[in-house]
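Example complex used in Figure S2.
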Amino acid sequence: MCSPLSIPNAVLCSDVKEVLRLKQEQDQPTTGRAQLANEAPERRHVLEAIKGFTIETPSWGYGDSGTRFKVFHWPGAARNLREKLADAALVHRLTGVCPRVAIHIPWDKEDDWAAVKADAAELGVRIGAVNPNLFQDEEYRFGSLCHPDPAVRQRAVKHVLECIQIAREVESDTISLWLADGTNYPGQDDLRARKRRLEETLTEIYAALAPGMRLLIEYKFFEPAFYHTDLADWGMAYTLARKLGPQARVLVDTGHHPQGTNLAHIVAFLLDEGILGGFHFNDRRYADDDLIVGSQHPFELFLVFNELVAVASQPQAPRIDYMIDQSHNIEPKIEAMIQSVLHIQSAYARALLVDRQRLAEAQAAGDVLGAYRVLRDAFETDVRPLLAQAREEMGLDPDPIAAFRRSGYADEVARARPASRSGASGYPGA
Ligand SMILES: [Mn+2]
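Predicted assembly (430 residues):
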């Protein structure tokens, strides 16, 4: 068992206490609560928040992927949806917080979605966001939903409608849409006409959403197009989501911004406007590198969570889906996913430890460095023992990576899954 911790600056402001209390009320009673009666209530609140915070993993993160130069095969990498679900279920069993798996159509296409749903349930997971693919057909050379040819636009709309139908069948309530549309050269197409085409096609898609279903609109400022991207930034995604209606929300992929962009500011702004619907977490050094979350810029990840925790206490706290979007090129897939989950939990736990009252006081007093140090104190807190305790209370191994390495699963799947060229992750040659 874990030894008791002393966490400096673990004093929570009343707002955070309130949201944690609400979370605690929602939670089922957990083993060991009685023996923790003598603990500081703040610590209990943080533990319960950590246990209730779930993360969605992507099916494509379990398959082989690569760069435009080479796809390196990983022994035992999942080759189809069933194998991806099995790997994702293992990540959930080890971490206790990853009950949903995002799928990508057509990479994960199956004939019998009822069977997929049942198999997932048997494994202990369920299907999360359904991600349409609007970038790999020959017809999409000049775009999909913005294409100048109405027939191609209709093809793209039809594909998204198919994804909505799949979502209905697997009882998912989320369509997560990223658009690869754009142009490579000035003058290639009429930018305003493309915008209007996008509004038209998205309106058609929006009208087909089931009641309560969400359309998450993901932006990215470059790639695969290089002159302009039709949905380049949060402002464009925001504008379209507002025009469409309340079922449309903005999705922030942390790797989809120019260098130097202040992510925490964008998150704060979208939160305050009530339009933030979800995240695709990953990290990057140069472009959309899809590296392990928090591996390159842990302080930035913490600052994003600081904004999220700050508003989580509002009476109408928004629903936000926390999803990972990564491609693991040279690293072991499952271990990379677990590592990502652990980094997200660390950032969240540290954000919960921010002394918001002291922060507000420092801000009001114009104490620039005092305010900074409140954040820094939380960021520098070693939350590993706290996270280990949360896992033990959930009946899990306190060290999911060690548990995975001990499990023999990696060797087992390496033997059971000969390399295939199924294209399971969508990468040419994967
Ligand atoms: Mn993404």
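The chain is about 45% helix and 10% strand. The longest strand covers residues 126-132.
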